Amino acid sequence: MVDLGLLAAIAAVAVLIGYRHHRRMEWQKYVTALKKEDFLLESPAGRKLRFFYEPRPSRTETERPAWLEHEVTNRINADGINSLSDFDIRKPGSVYRIVAIGDSHTFGQYVDTGRNWTDLLARHLNAHARCTPYAGFEVINLGVGGYDIEYTLERFRNRGAKYKPDLVLWLIGPVDFTKSNELMGPLRKKLEEQGVPVFDPATRTYPQLMMADEAFKNAFGEDFAVEYQRRRLMEAGRLFDAGLLIVNYAPLRGKMSPIIRDFVKLDRRYQYAEGIIDYAKLSRLPDGHPDARGYEQISEALLNYLCGRLKNDAPQRPAKRLARTHGDSGCGCPWVPPKRASK
Fold first, then answer.
1. Any idea where the domains of the chain sit in the sequence?
2. How far apart, in Å, are the Cα atoms of 105 and each of 147, 174, 284, 314, 338?
3. Strand pairing partners for 272?
């Protein structure tokens, strides 16, 4: 059993020694800060996660890092979701509902609410709604910046399951495997107690976050983190009682993709669409997150996949073929999404 308290103390001393080196590292300025006032820092009832966090509901947040050319505005709705609107828990029977989960690439980091891939995908799907048996489509964005696999699963349990989606769409990347927010929590707290600042105005960097991340990787190693997240994923089992589609937004290395492939074997309604997002061609900001065009590219890739792959499973019924409403999608009619699978 690893003594996290002792490890945190040792690691904190080690990273404090290297603090000056970190101040000189230019790339640190691209790290996203997690501001306490913007999050509910508590674990849901009945759960054991001590450092779990979610966006505070009913807020409008603005952000403009020094390296970004524009200010970003995100609206957090009444249920703590990055969305311009609220969603009824009870879904109208004629609406096809998708719940999107993941990290900052799902949340839509550094673009305004309404310009992330979840909102774009909803608009593209609704453009085709009149040739489907559905009155419309909803895409509910449960992404949160900084989440790993464990926290993404907890977010769905806590907020997503009640919406009873027809499909859960999980955008996942390598960083979701290579850290553990729960195990890093004691270390970040120790660094805070020892005076390591969250933000360093002299260099516009976030030393506490970066030092904790490096100390964790040095102490545990990447393989430990990957195995930790694998266990959390497999423990989830059949958490998603509707369809689940996992898509990697960046190349996964080592055991990461095999872990996902093993997971989707647990349920015939689970799918893994590997490599449908061309990360090399994705339009990105200096910190690696997609820019507005990048989120459009993600939306287009997902729409293409849904139209090309899932239409084979759709109910067979006549539908009038309409002209494409989105030139890049290749979707058109009569694509119809699959009906919710019965348990």
1. 4-313
2. 10, 12, 11, 28, 26
3. 246
Considering the domain delimited by 4-313, tell me its CATH architecture.
3-Layer(aba) Sandwich (3.40)
Residue-wise pLDDT tens digits, 232-241:
999 999 899 8
Name the DSSP letter for residue 162.
G
| 3-state SS, residue 8 | helix
DSSP 129-148: GGGSSSSEEEEEE---TT--
Please return the burial class of 51, using the count of CB atoms within 10 Å of its CB with bins 0-12, 13-18 and 19+.
middle
Task: Choose among 105, 102, 109: nearest CA to 152.
Answer: 102
* pLDDT for position 29: 45
Res 204: pLDDT = 59
φ, ψ of residue 184 to 5 degrees: the values are -80, -15
What is this structure's pTM? 0.80
Does 23 have pLDDT greater than 60? no
The residue type of 181 is N
8 Å CB contact between 100 and 106: yes
CA dihedral (90, 91, 94, 100) in degrees, to 10, reads -170
Q: How far apart are CA 192 and CA 112, in angstroms?
A: 31
Q: What is the structure's pLDDT at 12?
A: 44
Longest dimension (CA), the chain: 69
How far apart, in whole angstroms, are the C-alpha atoms of residue 301 and residue 328?
9
Alpha-carbon span 336 to 151, nearest angstrom:
32
What the block records as the tokens of 297 is 């590219």
Q: Are 329 and 306 in contact (CB under 8 A)?
A: no
Distance CA 131, CA 335 (A): 8
Residue-level pLDDT at 253:
96
CA neighbor of 215 nearest in space, from 193, 233, 190: 190
Cα-Cα end-to-end distance for the chain: 39
Q: Using one digit for the tens of pLDDT, what is the confidence trace for 56-93?
A: 999 999 988 777 889 999 999 999 999 999 999 999 88
pLDDT digits (tens, 9 = 90+) for 281-290: 999 998 889 9
Predicted pLDDT of residue 206:
67
